[in-house]
Structure formats: C-alpha cells, structure tokens
Design a protein that fits this description.
With 115 residues, this protein is mostly helical. It has a single domain, classed as c-terminal domain of poly(a) binding protein. Helices cover 74% and strands 0% of the residues. The chain contains 5 helices and no strands. α2 packs across α4 and α4 crosses α5. The model has no long low-confidence stretch (mean pLDDT 95).
C-alpha cells in the first residue's frame, strides 16, 4: 500500500510562508528552503531588536538631555543627581523632549535645580 501524504496541507503551509516572504530579493522570495531560513532569521532579528530599540531610545534621550544641559554649564550626571535630590519626577523621555522642543521650559527646570 502506498504511503499517504497530505499534499494539500503541506502545500498550504509552504504557500503561507512564501506569501510572508513576498518582496524579498532573489531566491529568498520563491525557493522554499531559502525563504524559510530567511523568514526564520528575520523573526529572530525582530525579537532581538524589539529589546534593542528600548536601549537605543534611552541612549538617544540621554544624549539629548546632556546636550541641553551642557548649554547651562552642567553635565548629565550632575543634572540627574540634582534632579533626584530635588525629587522632581520627570523621566528621560520627557526631559529629552523638553530639551529639544521646549528650551524655555527646560531652562526653567535647570534654574529650579541650580537653586
């Protein structure tokens, strides 16, 4: 008796993955094994980079705060230390936004801390 293979399900599974790789370059979009490997690696990168995105943004905020504070003769670390000592509860994202887009409000915070 011949072996029964479910071609319908396996073809559907392959078509589903090849649909996900549409737009990739060369064999990555239409050769099953290459497309599968590429898609799986892409999922690994996506998982990793969701974590890295948080690190990158925090680093960007720190850089922006540091640049904003340097105009007033302070360093980032001393600014953050004084900020916590005065118990001002502003996170780095908000401070970076103030430093970039609202310099007068950021200056008011720096003046409040220097007192």
């Amino acid at each position: 008796m011949p072996r029964s293979v479910n071609h319908v399900a396996s073809r559907e599974r392959r078509k589903k993955l090849l649909k996900l790789t549409r737009g990739y370059f060369g064999k990555r979009k239409n050769v099953w094994t290459v497309a599968k490997n590429t898609w799986e690696k892409g999922q690994q990168y996506a998982y990793r980079d969701r974590k890295q995105k948080k690190r990158n943004f925090r680093s960007l905020w720190i850089t922006r705060i540091n640049a904003g504070v340097r105009e007033y003769g302070m360093s980032y670390s001393s600014f953050m230390g004084l900020l916590h000592k005065k118990e001002i509860e502003l996170n780095r994202k908000a401070l970076a936004d103030l430093a970039m887009n609202h310099p007068e409000a950021f200056k008011a915070i720096v003046d409040l801390i220097k007192k």
